[in-house]
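ESCALATION

Customer reports they have been waiting on this structure for their group meeting. Please prioritize. Original submission:
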Amino acid sequence: MIVDIFDYGMNGEGVAKQDGKVLLVDHALVREQVDCEIILDHNNYATAKVKNILKQSKNRTTPHCPYFYQCGGCDLQHMEYAEQLRFKSSLIKKTINKIVGVDVAVSDTIPSQNCYNYRNKSSFAFKNGKSGFYQQNSNDIVEISKCIISSENINLVYKLFTEFASNFKDKERIKNLVVRDINNQILVGVVTIKELNLLPFWNILKQQFSQIGLCQIINTRNDSVVLSGKVIHVAGLDKIKILNFGLDYQVDLLGFHQTNEDIQNKIYEKVLNFISPNSVVVNGFSGQGLLSAIVAKKAKHVYGIEINHSSHTSAERLKFDNNIANMTNILGDFYKKFDKIKEKIDTIILDPSKKGCGKDVIHAIIGVKNIIYISCNPIALAKDLRELLASYEIENIIPFDMFPNTKSVETLLKLKLKEK
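Update from on-call: job pushed to the front of the queue and completed.
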């Protein structure tokens, strides 16, 4: 069937219509005419794949990665980068319009300094003698030799480990390889079902890298969670030391840290611009305390609320190491802890998980003068925004390209309480 592509779907698919039904055409671009075939036919829409491009968009490019059309890691390598940025701004605007019912102004997406080799952490799967990434919507592994959005150091570690594992007699026990690389400091985790002797692999690593550490993670789970279980430090580094925004802090392999530091820093700089010098700030879902510590450089006082005990401990260490007097880390559930300090606050920063904040948290914060919301999920952001717009007006919506060549987008939202 021949169709004209006039829009993009949530995942970057091309959108067309045939006999009144919406078609989502994988890897098709706006202003293209394609011959496609239906893969799945649903009641009100169908998914399709391209058989032949009859009229090609000027925004189409040849993917740099040879595994692009099989691997589930990237979604948009067939799009020129400028088109990726336009898609992400449009995605935020359309999602808010659809869920909230308002037409909002969305800034141009802030680009990443690098479109490739930007990831400072990657996880590779090992299964049935294969290694690589899972195919999209499948449990089958696409074997790869390298990942072009991961750092060169990560790719070298992966190459060394696949060569090592190919001769390993207990390789069926290996589940994953996880590598974090920041400022040429590298942490390597081998995830296994049972304990293995990894000292021979350590001897290979230390010959290649001057700042590296190796651990083994015993994970017997049957789900998709990778970094869970007993951690055995084999040798070398157990943490990466970072100096950023004038702060000394440490990151381990298991703790959360943004995978694109360039965009992380651009977001945090913008957040800092939204903070006034005399403000008292709550950083909800504050993690290991980095953003709280950055904001403390400008605000009168910052309260960081975090439910994860390990992350709270890291935030306390960061506070102590940097002698930050105007930062208070609170361990516990945000909804329960915020109510006790709400009257002191004029600004709140929210950086929740992918599922968003939810109605309970949103209703609890109504009345705070300024809200700064960082989101990795446009749908969850729009649902939370819908609860806020009766009391707040939007000052800024700024998308950031945290993950180039993928459909994912990070959004920074600034709201101000309406005057009565």
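Sent to customer with the following note: The two ends are 56 Å apart (CA to CA).
Escalation resolved.
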